[in-house]
Amino acid sequence: MRINEYYRDTANLNLNGSIAALVPTILIVAINLSIIKHSELMLMTIPFLFYSLISFQIYLHRMRQSIEISKNILESENINQSILQAEHLLVFYMNTQSSQVHLYFPNGNLAGIIKKTPKNGWKRLRTSKTFALYNYDEEVLGFFKVKGEKSIKIEVYDRQSRLLGSLEKKVLGWKKSQKELFDGCGGYVGGIEGSSVFMDEQVLDTQHRQVGRLRRGWMPLEWSLLFPEPNTPVLSFKEALAENDKLLRMSFLINEYFIER
Predict the structure, then answer these.
(1) How far apart are CA 19 and CA 117, in angstroms?
(2) pTM of the model
């Protein structure tokens, strides 16, 4: 999948929403004309018509973006690059019935998807609070198991079900929390610090040096031909990080998109 297909799919979701909003409108009109026959009842159709119109306009906008991107997108030599080797990824959150996070390479190709594991997935992690990272070929690269309600612990496993470590989030007060990363033996390996006002999450090591970052409003101008939204979140990691270290640190995406949202 490429980024133009993502915009096309989101356009279709808005089109479906626009059509769905017309159903109660038609029912209200039909029932009122045939049975109730009260003119004021027609006012009930206004919210549905308004939602349908807005959704249709978004559909047209997204389709225009998809068509424009498809003209700019090119074949890339990096199409088979591993998501865990990438230095930069662009993050898209799909708030559907089954929410997903789509990760794209800067060349517009799909890098991977984070989503809930299916019920017939890994037996050890067969819960509604377990997520998996898939590459562009839909191969599982790792698992994230969420524990707790207020104080959260996210255990991270590789594809062979080996525990790599965890992200532990402790609530300190209203809108205040502490997020720390630990390895498989429980040793402290870093933390997550960010702003409560805007998206700028920093992944830090034991020396408080930045090794990763997720932020909005920062995107190289040359990427805008394929990613027209300037506020698209960009996830960056230091090149020196090993793949398993990156996978462990990506656990903060679970907290950011599936827990705090």
Answers:
(1) 30
(2) 0.85
